[in-house]
Amino acid sequence: MGLLSNRVERSEIKAGDHIYTYRAVFAYSHHGIFVGGSKVVHFTPRHDANSSTETSANSYEEKYDLPSSCPTFPDCGFRQPNSGVVLTCLDCFLRNGSLYSFEYGVTPSVFLAKVRGGTCTTAMPDPPETVIHRAMYLLQNGFGNYDVFQNNCEDFALYCKTGLLIVERSGVGRSGQASSIVGAPLAALLSSPLKLLMPSPIGVATVTAGMYCMSRYATDIGVRSDVIKVAVEELAVNLGWGEGGDEEEDNGVTDQLIAM
Predict the structure, then answer these.
(1) 142 in any annotated domain
(2) Quick one: which H or E segment has residue 28?
(3) Which residue, 123, 164, 166, 181, could crosslink 222 as a Cys pair with Cβ 3.0–4.6 Å?
(4) pLDDT at 148
(5) 210 within a domain of the structure (yes/no)
(6) Mean pLDDT, residues 217-243
(7) How many domains does the chain have?
(8) Is 153 a known active-site residue?
């Protein structure tokens, strides 16, 4: 993977990898965990017939709706009732888009050089078997309510890869995309008083870009102080999502779904 693009070929990804693809002409990216067997577990707004709050708040995410049928895998689109965590084949996940691999353990200089958020983190990943276990456990037990800024598809993949959870959930979540959205106007706002000191447009642009990058870096889970390691079996109870599931039963379902 290069500095400008994390694009990879299908033959290069391995089970437990955090992958993503761009939607709407690179307007945003959709993230998931490749679990092997040409299957991806990812997080979308749930479809609750008794509630319209999520779909109204995140209307653009409706583009993640699954096709009515998959010609290759009969279990493509599997999800528990009222859950946003879904298992699909790689083709349906990509929707004819290109495949990209999210980078972990990058240096601060590399992180800052990748101006676009949602492509890398300084945090270190856990072993692939741990990542797959988290993804399949959450497929059975859910990942709470979808939120563009605090609990989105990138947040889901980041948690599966690292087990890190933000203690105070009133701000921006782990997502690099969300940090970029917040960071851009913040950088412009903070740099505006400096315009009087830097009459050159190039100087103002340089300061704005620097503040934007630093605001992204400050919210990266690899450097934040408000993140803790939370076991996936304790996640639901910890955040009040429910009682959690039966781990032994989950393991059996995991093997069956990936093998199909």
Answers:
(1) yes
(2) strand 28-36
(3) 123
(4) 86
(5) yes
(6) 82
(7) 1
(8) yes
The sign one gets for the Cα dihedral 197, 203, 205, 210 is negative
Give the strand pairing for 85-89 and 39-43: antiparallel
Note the pLDDT tens digit of each residue in 190-226.
Answer: 444 544 445 556 544 555 555 666 777 888 899 888 8
Q: How far apart are CA 142 and CA 244, in angstroms?
A: 9
Structural tokens at position 39:
């299957």
The band of 66, judged by pLDDT with boundaries at 50, 70 and 90, is low
Concerning whether 18 is annotated as a catalytic residue, the answer is no
Minimum mean pLDDT among 97-101, 183-187, 213-217: which range? Answer: 183-187
CA separation for the pair 19, 209 (Å, rounded): 27
pLDDT of residue 236: 76
CATH of the domain at 76: 3.90.1720.10
Task: Measure the CA angle with vertex 150, ends 136 and 80; round to 5°.
Answer: 30
> Does residue 66 contact residue 79 with C-beta atoms inside 8 Å?
no
Residue 106, helix vs strand vs coil? coil
Indicate whether 134 belongs to any domain: yes
Q: What is the pTM for the complete model shown?
A: 0.78
Whether 30 is a known active-site residue: answer yes
Region 170-178 average pLDDT: 59
User: Which of 87-101, 140-154, 187-201, 208-222 has the least mean pLDDT?
Assistant: 187-201
Q: How far is CA 180 from CA 67, 123, 207, 220, 236, in A?
A: 30, 17, 16, 11, 28
Range of the domain at 108: 17-45+70-238
Cα gap 49→52, rounded to integer Å: 7
Q: Are 149 and 186 a contacting pair, CB within 8 Å? A: no
State the catalytic residue, choosing from 76, 92, 120, 153.
153
Measured between alpha carbons, how far is residue 233 from residues 10, 136, 137, 151, 210 in Å?
31, 11, 8, 18, 40
